[in-house]
């Protein structure tokens, strides 16, 4: 079942200078996310990945196109309707150091969305303990402040907070980029485990193809505000059709210097071929 359907999405930002025209950064992007699915969204820096995520969350107003959630148009929703949608669409941001309120205890951070939804303090308390357990944190975390936790633990707290309202979709915007490699693997596995248990869908934004390949069912490749390729993760990452995807794959860092050199040469050849049109 289609959960999210984005059709011909356009976003323009005000240009610099008094007479500057708006600058369009998404030029008509279309994709779908099914219930319980992970769609990986990849592309180089500045290609528009975060802008897509923010538009889906209602944080950026599109200049054109449609964003339907469970068949209902979400563009232009405000007030109560937008708040109701916020239960279904949650977000985990890149930086676990700035995304959690430093003066609130973990218990309060996790209970807040539940109480807003009308849960009693007692129910919220029980649910907070279950959420902490689900993300692998000890029950005594409720009394503590974000600064007492490592980056990986804070990202677990951010994931628990996103899960609290029982969403159907979580926009994960580079959720691993601020973490060291071994912590990245643990948090990635946690996200996969949560999906299996809760059936939540992810729009997983990342510039790291290895990570995206690992977690995604399908992958969409964004290049300068256009989707150039969408398909099953294994196909897009092993036999990409678009030259840009090939280039993106070839620029992924490798441990083997010989293979790294071979890929650099292949990349140069591709870039030269592209330049010649
Ligand atoms: N609020 C804004 N006002 C003006 N321009 C913006 C705004 N937000 C994003 N942009 C521009 O839109 C383009 C796409 O940015 P976006 O952050 O969506 O890219 P991205 O692919 O997520 O990049 P990164 O991987 O570096 O986060 C960039 O040129 C950026 O400078």
UniProtKB/TrEMBL annotation:
Family to which this protein belongs: Belongs to the ABC transporter superfamily.
The keyword Nucleotide-binding belongs to this UniProt entry's keyword annotation: yes
Alphabetic keyword roster: ATP-binding, Nucleotide-binding, Transport
Biased composition (Basic and acidic residues): 258-269
CDD domains in the record: ABC_NikE_OppD_transporters (cd03257)
SUPFAM superfamilies for the chain: P-loop containing nucleoside triphosphate hydrolases (SSF52540)
Name of the molecule in the record: Peptide ABC transporter ATP-binding protein
All residue ranges annotated as the ABC transporter domain in the record: 4-249
Taxonomic path: Bacteria, Bacillati, Actinomycetota, Actinomycetes, Frankiales
